[in-house]
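User: Okay, second chain of the day. Same drill as before: sequence in, structure tokens out.
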Amino acid sequence: MPSILKKGAALFLGLGLMAGLTTMAAQAADALQAIKSKGTVKIGMLVDFPPYGLMNEQNKPDGYDADVAKALAEEMGVKLQLVPVTGPNRIPYLLSGQVDLLVASLGITPARAKKVDFSEPYAAITIGVYGKDDVKISKPEELAGKTIAVARASTQDTAVTKVAPKSTNIRRFDSDAAALQALISGQVPLLGCSNVCYVTIQKLAPGKYNKKFELSSQVQGVAVKPGEKDLLAWVNQFIDKAKSDGKLDKINQKWLGEPMPAILKKSSQ
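Assistant: Same drill. Structure tokens below.
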């Protein structure tokens, strides 16, 4: 009897486990339909990372990610509920079901890809060389003999140092703000910085500076719970369409003051 009971218990547990896995698979497959059925999609986004995420004058979430989320909800035909999240809690919010998706400036990395499923890239933080319109350079070799400012020990410092010819005068400042001020004040003709920093340049001196070339980038993706294949496939279709019809380019121009990065165009090909 004890042996029979043990076998019965093992069978019961096995059936229970299979039922649980089947239920989880069904829930994952039905994630897209569930959102459509309730008529609302809950999207988590940062509100402390301008221009991607911020709180506007009406104290509502706004920014690049907010505009992408609005376009996504509109395309899906449901109402949008933006849920403010933080860097540390954004993935836990998704995994615990507090949000359906993350459009939260989440860089696609191997470590994060073990926890969530990523869409194809919809945004990118790029590092590039910027300068006055009359400075004519378009590749690293043309930095030879020129002076460029960077924030000391920053990502852009590393990127510029890696490609600059030996004759390049790399002036290192204690912060992005100090390096930016050196450009605006005319101390240097060129600056190595991110596209986020370029937003500040445009505000301080609109129309006087442009990007010469890109050095590196980190792409960002929409995140869904692992296994939600139908939802992920729909999100990828939405992103492809937003790239091809110019919607993402308009959002990039609005918030970052420049065209959609080339790396995003490549990802859709």
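The chain has a mean pLDDT of 90.

User: Thanks, on to the next one.
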